[in-house]
Write a structure and sequence with these properties.
This protein is mostly helical and about 300 residues long. Among the domains are: about 110 residues, Type II secretion system (T2SS), domain F (Receptor-associated Protein, Up-down Bundle), CATH 1.20.81; about 60 residues. Helix 3 packs antiparallel against helix 4 and helix 5 crosses helix 6. The radius of gyration is 24 Å and the shape is elongated. It starts with a helix and ends with a helix.
Length: about 300
């Protein structure tokens, strides 16, 4: 291959990598530092939601929601640049080592998709933290209501006294209520931002109470008890399915590690596999079957409660 083309490709990849790193550093540090801990950026309300039109808009919508739900002070554009940079770095590295276009394309795809599992795990960890914090917040709301505070004041108290990340969501609700938004709309927006079952139940409970009245303190106490029971059930389920989840992780990692080992130390076999149509077909078939198997195991181990 012409060395000048390699130099141009390396320069373009390095430039995009530097730009992506700068965007990520700006999003993670300077945006958060300039905004301060008490300043909350505007997120779409539930009534602002518009169904995406087309495949591209659907992907953009899901990626934007994923970035928002991680709780990071990053933007979807910065995340896309980071994905492109990692894809170019890994794909360019594979191509320079093997001079194989298919290997470079596979490396680019793997590198571009590498940040997605990190974002998904960060979102899952944040939602788990919110679920763990919710019973204590319900107890706090119940005590505030019994002490004579209004529901709006109790929500503001929860935003000030609760730890992150749930405190930020209640501060958003408090700010929306202070700006004149109806409680039902604020609760729908809260359930839209934090899409867990317990939050939807809380939003429905507070909206119904605002319309029909009732003993809110006792209702919140019962709900806190139910949420704690659900958390106990999930912990027991995770213990019971630990062996299955470990087996699924081992099967998914073993194939990737074996392919990487063959790619690095047995380059002749890997090149023969990637250069023949039957080898490419078998590789694609193996990848598809592994993904199907992992999705099947995840469906079996997922809790419906």
């Amino acid at each position: 291959m012409d060395p000048s083309l390699i130099i141009i490709a390396c320069f373009a990849a390095g430039s995009l990598l530097v730009a992506a790193v700068l965007f990520v550093v700006r999003d993670l540090f300077f945006v958060a530092a300039s905004g301060g801990g008490s300043v909350l950026g505007r997120l779409p309300l539930a009534r602002d939601e518009r169904p995406p039109d087309g495949v591209i808009e659907t992907i953009d919508h899901k990626l934007a929601r994923l970035v928002v739900e991680t709780g990071m002070d990053a933007t979807p554009m910065g995340t896309v640049l980071l994905m492109i940079a990692t894809g170019l770095a890994l794909g360019g590295g594979f191509f320079l080592v093997t001079e194989n276009e298919i290997g470079g394309a596979v490396g680019f795809a793997v590198g571009a998709l590498a940040p997605l599992p990190i974002l998904i795990m960060r979102r899952a960890r944040r939602l788990k933290q919110i679920q763990e914090q919710l019973p204590d917040v319900l107890d706090l709301l119940a005590r505030a209501v019994r002490a004579g505070e209004s529901l709006d004041q109790a929500i503001d108290l929860a935003g000030r006294k609760t730890s992150e990340p749930l405190a930020r969501e209640f501060r958003r609700c408090s700010n929306q209520l202070k700006m004149g938004l109806a409680l039902s709309a604020a609760m729908r927006s809260l359930a839209y931002r934090v899409q867990v079952m317990e939050m939807r139940i809380l939003a429905t409970t507070l909206s119904v109470h605002r319309q029909a009245g009732g003993n809110l303190g006792e209702t919140l106490d019962r709900m806190a008890h139910v949420v704690r029971e659900r958390l106990t059930y999930r912990r027991q389920l995770r213990v019971a399915t630990a062996a299955g989840r470990f087996s699924a992780a081992l099967v998914s990692i073993a194939g990737v590690l074996l392919f990487c080992y063959m790619f690095v130390f047995q380059a002749d076999y890997t090149h023969r596999l990637l250069s023949t149509p039957i080898g490419q077909s078998l590789l694609v078939l193996a990848l598809v079957l592994e993904i199907v198997g992992l999705l099947w195991i995840w469906r079996l181990l997922r809790s419906e409660y």
